[in-house]
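FAQ: What does the model actually see?

It sees only this:
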Amino acid sequence: MLTRTAPATGPETGLLASLGAWTWPGTAPDGQQVAHLLLAHCLGRTSHDTPKAIETRMRHLAETLGTLMAVGSHVLLRFPGARWGLKLPAHPQWTRLVHNNGRAALVLGLDPLAQTADAPRADAYLDAVLTRGRLLFGFARRTSRTA
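And it is asked to produce this:
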């Protein structure tokens, strides 16, 4: 779900609407609990949505990384300059981790994944794209402001 934020200079609305998002709590290499967030582009809908074009969009998105903003019991992922934010699917445990740690591990897939993918399909996707080196990693930080 998209939520309007500010005037656009960042990722286009079409790109944000084409993203699937999956969240889960997990463990970091140091044993600490961490919130994970997977973003992946859905399958292309037009002839302009070639695998190369999708990868280019996702790499551009990775360069901006987002900030997480708590909005009530929800978490919104905002990208600098984008008019809209991405409302994330979030379990209370995941939301608590974001609030307590101030960040989420962001995993960005370069290959398409259907927005309707369930957890087993998302796990299989992660295994496949990790093997092929088609994941980008970073952190999305929580803003100090909450709504």
